[in-house]
């Protein structure tokens, strides 16, 4: 008889399984749309209309960065809370409730997006992951997102309830590290999602329903980025958690420093949100001073990641040395590279080191002129969420699947091949994307080939970059196929009694070394709120003062049917409005002349 | 908590033969992460080099750049002097 | 709190890195004068650009000896004016706004790059040195035709550059023997005077007139040709000033019917 998670918490294991499978389903869909895009953009194989590319892109973005990541992380957060507090959830119906709400929400959103492929309905939502007004999606899109986010709010409530109950029974104990990470991450998430909740509930949803005439595009955009930057930490924090609590154990060692891990998560809680304006360095209507403040906050947000780099590497080194590793760098050979869980996480961490660099460039204010909205940015986040997060999630899946299914992993060799293939594929793809961005190749476009000019590469050529991207995309797709083979193969395996125990890494320097104040979540939350108020009050007031709460009159662009007819209809509408304007002008002129000349 | 400290070093996964390769136990005081320091030092140097390269070669070499009208006059004056 | 000496060292190094990054950016702003797109410009009504002084006529304007202003409108899926023509060795301030959704205005291969948000006006001053042709892309998704949205900025040599507007008007028909008169309106929108030649070519005839047009002035010229020398039939004519042309056709007929031939609207 083993002592796996499913043996300890059979009911919770079922919820986590459901969350994982939802996550993997989204990953499969997102992956299919990913390869379609890759081949379309690079021009290797185009079987969809270029206008439909943006529906594909919306689906790729939303399914991967909303459904795949968040479903997976609610799974491992549930694992972290129950395992580290050693207690089941307080009310299983509540747990299934928030899972159900998330599932319903993302289904509505997904349907609204996918309906864009057919002319059978007027429903569509090809507004991309950022849904900037005046682009307008069907109300279902916004409604689904709201339900999904509310689901995550309830998930947080669930975990807080566990903590409160545990604290009542263990008043003098330190919060176990995994639980501490979940709680700080969720507090950050509550603050962050206020932005997107305001954007959708106050403005975009009523506007899409026709209840309000117009919105202020700069305001809704700013509220989006209020949420849009911290959301990347929402994806990243679970990966960090895995690097802190699982990777040291898999490496054969212990976490180097529990106190610093706490410091890192506290810094993320207080600094993640007041930085969103760094996505708007090139926005007109926001003063340079606000942008500079956002940059300063963003640069200091590098600190927790840089600290993490040291702690995680030191923890791996501890494992390697316990396994007999020697020398300054020779110990690297003593690490369990043939273990897919380790190899996947270590390679993800390596890619994140590179991503850290491109992130530092993105954080810089004036250098943003060079990279803003170019392919560079796409390269950056395919390293962060696309590798640091996604590859870590896939790697830890090989540890979690046996834990929550009670079945042996189908194939460790296939798993190892999968993580290596992802690393290689993403190396080709993201490197080429970064370089392409420096040539000025834009992101988010179906056909980055123009009539009037060409992109000039000092080294290599655009064709070579396209080839690397397409090759990378194919390797990543293969990697996904291997991943799903393993997930399905494992699900089809029989129940095993011979599974590793459910446990996580011990610490070299434990919570007893961490000042008590680090566990004061109220204090850190209050500081976080104050910083957000400082960073956002004046920019938001200024934006509202300039453009009005509901903005100027706008030309709405509902993306209901994405075919050539709608484009020509649009062109016709523009033409007609122009003619109408001209006629009005002519009438006015005639009237004026008539008035002047007696 | 309980899982963390008690069981983490017991590696008993039969499927992971490499993990049982632990040859010694290294405690907090004996462990000196020189390897981590070496790697992170290397990373630091790479970051500094790439930052300067990106800012002064890629960015400033990517003329023209958005400048304020006033300062351009000032730098023009400096150029003449 | 128990922090290892190496970690303290790394903490200091990390802080140095962060401060160094901020210092570099500040150096760019203060010493090199790199300015962010900001809130310098007043807002605008996207649906009423025709009534806005800045954007009623998307154009390039000369405002100082080497200073120009370009008023650009982005809309699905084009930029106006296109191409934008400016001279070498000039300071050009771009004012960019959107008629509909969010776009961008980004000169490929340069650091000239801004979001274009309806209701807001992006202002960017750029120094152009040598003649060059830049592509302009919209790098923010703006709808199903986003990938077709492009433009060009031409930085042309001093000799080639002007802000001259030419308009010529002639009769559609004249009776043989009558005079054909072509009215030419030439506007010099630059600040300095230009010396140039206005040329009318009609049939085998070429008429020229050397003119000087003061900065900001408009010159009216009339060319007169005897229709008899051209003979009966249709005659194409072209008026040329530097690189600008305007043209038309005149029909010379023996007997003009009162009701016929008026195919002009």
Automatic annotation (TrEMBL), chain A:
Keywords tagged on the record: Electron transport, Heme, Iron, Membrane, Metal-binding, Respiratory chain, Transmembrane, Transmembrane helix, Transport
Principal location class: membrane
SUPFAM superfamilies cross-referenced by the UniProt entry: Cytochrome c oxidase subunit I-like
Domain Cytochrome oxidase subunit I profile residue range list: 20-485
Lipid bilayer topology: Multi-pass membrane protein
GO cellular component: membrane
Gene3D superfamilies: Cytochrome c oxidase-like, subunit I domain (1.20.210.10)
Family annotation (InterPro entries): Ba3-like_Oxidase_I, Cyt_c_oxase-like_su1_dom, Cyt_c_oxase-like_su1_sf, Cyt_C_Oxase_1, Cyt_c_Oxase_su1_BS
Subcellular location: Membrane
Sequence intervals crossing the membrane: 18-39, 59-82, 94-117, 137-160, 180-204, 224-247, 259-277, 289-313, 341-361, 381-401, 413-433, 469-492, 523-544
Molecular function terms from GO: cytochrome-c oxidase activity; heme binding
PROSITE patterns in the cross-refs: COX1, COX1_CUB
Pfam families from the UniProt entry: COX1 (PF00115)
Origin superkingdom: Archaea
Gene Ontology biological process terms from the UniProt entry: aerobic respiration
Homology family: Belongs to the heme-copper respiratory oxidase family.
Protein known as: B(O/a)3-type cytochrome-c oxidase subunit 1
Source organism of the structure: Salinadaptatus halalkaliphilus
UniProtKB/TrEMBL annotation, chain B:
Region (Disordered) residue spans: 1-25
Bias type Polar residues, positions: 7-20
Record carries keyword Transmembrane helix: yes
Keywords recorded for this protein, A-Z: Membrane, Transmembrane, Transmembrane helix
Transmembrane segment boundaries: 34-57
Protein name per UniProt: Cytochrome oxidase
Organism: Salinadaptatus halalkaliphilus
From TrEMBL, chain C:
The keyword Chloroplast is annotated on this UniProt entry: no
GO cellular component: membrane
Keywords on record: Copper, Membrane, Metal-binding, Transmembrane, Transmembrane helix
Pfam families the record matches: COX2
UniProt cross-references to PROSITE patterns, sorted A to Z: COX2 (PS00078), COX2_CUA (PS50857)
Localization in the cell: Cell envelope
Biased composition (Basic and acidic residues): 234-246
Name of the molecule in the record: Cytochrome C oxidase subunit II
Sequence intervals crossing the membrane: 9-34
Segments of this protein annotated with the region Disordered: 234-265
Residue intervals of the Cytochrome oxidase subunit II copper A binding domain: 55-167
Domain of life the protein comes from: Archaea
Biased composition range(s): Acidic residues: 254-265
Gene3D superfamilies membership: Cupredoxins - blue copper proteins (2.60.40.420), Immunoglobulins (2.60.40.10)
Chief place of localization: other
Single GO term (MF): copper ion binding
